[in-house]
Amino acid sequence: MTAVAGGLGDEEESHARGALLPPAPRPEALRVLAGALRAPSDLLDSVPLVPHPRAALRRRAMRGLWFAALPATLALLALGASLTPALLHAAWIHALVATAATALLARDAHRSLGHALHGSHLLVRAGTFSRDTLALERSGIIAWTFSTSPFGRRHGLVTLTAAVAAGEHGYHVRDVAAGDAVALAMAARPGIVEEFLEPPGRPERSPG
Fold it and tell me: Radius of gyration of the chain from Cα atoms?
């Protein structure tokens, strides 16, 4: 468990000095968390998180296929064609196993995704092998960044980054529905993005 706090040095020093608790039983971790946040000890269990779109699941599945399953399969096929047919069998076996594993991991990663506003905190959860939950003080957010990729634009996904003057200086809410991103930023920290929005019903400017 690590605190997001300023004045602890650079990013590496902040992570080391901000450590609140080494790996510990869950009840003890929740007790320390409650004391640090001045919040109920069941905060992480009692607050329902908003799930992210199914397009985020497809994104994780495709990323796993492109970067984990496909390269090794192509390498085995190339080696099998030039060296021994046994590697051709290894290629299709690897493809089946890697595809199944990718689907399971992508589904687990998608189940982990979520966010919520609770009192003075923005809660964000993500991760597969290490499922991390961030409780960020909303008053500490000083700016928002909206970013996307070609896949994200095509499927209506946006990643919000909350800029803060502490910790890693930026924390991500990954793969939010594009239609909900601005509303989430405005609700989490009012007064930052409003000045950049066009008022409803405002006529479009003519060219020139």
Answer: 22
Q: What is the overall mean pLDDT for the chain?
A: 85
Residue found under tokens 């919000």 = 160
pTM higher than 0.90 for the full model? no
Tokens of 53: 């779109």
Rounded Cα–Cα distance for residues 163 and 150 (Å): 23
3-state secondary structure of 166: coil
Residue bearing the bigger pLDDT, 46 or 84: 84
- Quickly list DSSP for 91-128: HHHHHHHHHHHHHHHHHHHHHH-EEEEETTEEEEEE-S
Q: How far apart are the first and last CA of the chain?
A: 55
Cα 181 from Cα 4, distance rounded (Å) = 23
143 CB-near residues (< 8 Å, 6+ apart): 162, 163, 192
For 85-104, what is each residue's pLDDT tens digit? 888 999 999 999 999 999 99
